[in-house]
Amino acid sequence: MSSVSQTSKQKHRLSLGWQIVIGLIVGIILGVIFYKNKMAITAMQNIGTMFIGLIQMIVLPIVISSLTVGIAKMGDMRKLGRVGLKTLIYFEILSTIAIVLGMIAGNVFEPGAHVNIHNLQATNISSYLSTAKSAGTGSLWETVMDIVPTNIFSSLSENKMLQVILFSVFFGLGTAAIGPKGQVIIDLLDAIAEVMFKVTNWVMRLAPIGVGALIGATVAQMGLGSLKSLGYFIFVAYLTMIIFIVVILGIVLKIYHTNIFDLFRVLREEIILAFTTASSEATLPRIVSKMEKFGVSQGVVSFVVPTGYTFNLDGSAIYQAIGALFMAQAYNIHLSLAQQITLLVVLMITSKGMAGVPGASFVVLLATVATIGVPAQGLAFIAGVDRLVDMGRTVVNVVGNSTASIVIAKSEHDFDDSKNTAYLKSIK
């Protein structure tokens, strides 16, 4: 009798996705109620920050344990090199397509052509300007050298993902090289990964509260009225991102015999979480777990997804292209084809060179617009809605990196189709 009642309770329990949606709606209502209320905004920001902090606490242990075990099980230096090269080439191609799509949308829809720049409210961007200046002083060699960790504990404390990935790769290869003795390390790290995934499930129960607080703070700060003056810019950015996900990523997945809507079904909770928190890290632990269940091998997913959060920011690439053209149009600066090609090349370089810099998408824009004659101060007019667009581009980044793991796994014949079929049936 008790088991029957427990089953009925589970049937009537709301799924996490619906709980997050409810949290989103409640957050918007609270934001409207407490518009410009500093105490309420601070309280909601602190609650949201604590939730993101709990997720970030889990990310690095999962990356280290999953990636080390995955590389150790792969155990082949040549295969790892091949996977790494394929991943970087794929990232570069998709990022370039994203920039080109953003530039096409900017030219076709002209989001800045009918905007009176003098009627827009400027936002303080002094922190972004200082970040762009310091980030821009680094040479290519400094960027490459920064990937190599001198102290892994320092890398962990400073959240330097690429350094952690490089260490984990070498640690995994070393574990594979010592043969049976390394099995102890593999078993230990497997257990650590399982513990971290269990902790992730616990933390995710707080997601509706964290999501409500974050979106509430955003609405309370900006107000719904901020959508009026830059509504068309936001609309064009979101439309372009939707086209990129459904059409571009849909075609890529179709080539590899996967349906984009199956991926949406698998990632529906993570998509909502990414949208509301505007944080890719908030979804990383569950993306790694779900892509493994989807059929991607542990070695591929634990390498591709964390690396993608630095090198494969397709949503950010779209935003940067549209943002740059928006500002040029708003200032009545006509860009020739040669100038737009220059913009494309500069965006390709700066978006990679400044990955990992705080506020990277906006910093890249600051470093880019000067090359097409747009005053850097002009970006102060779109800084106010940056958070709203950031929510959309985070979703694109999450779906894009999940797609990348499928593509690389299938290209390496490292995808379990039977596991994929069973998992898709289980979530219907």
TrEMBL record:
Protein name: Proton glutamate symport protein
Membrane topology label: Multi-pass membrane protein
GO MF entries: symporter activity
GO BP of this protein: dicarboxylic acid transport
Pfam families, per the entry: SDF
Superkingdom in the source lineage: Bacteria
CC per GO annotation: plasma membrane
Keywords: Cell membrane, Membrane, Symport, Transmembrane, Transmembrane helix, Transport
Segments traversing the membrane: 16-35, 47-67, 88-109, 161-179, 206-224, 230-256, 362-383
Database matches in PANTHER family: PROTON/GLUTAMATE-ASPARTATE SYMPORTER, PROTON_GLUTAMATE-ASPARTATE SYMPORTER
Family annotation (InterPro entries): Na-dicarboxylate_symporter, Na:dicarbo_symporter_sf
Keyword check for Protein biosynthesis: no
Protein localization: Cell membrane
Organism per entry: Weissella bombi
SUPFAM superfamilies on file: Proton glutamate symport protein
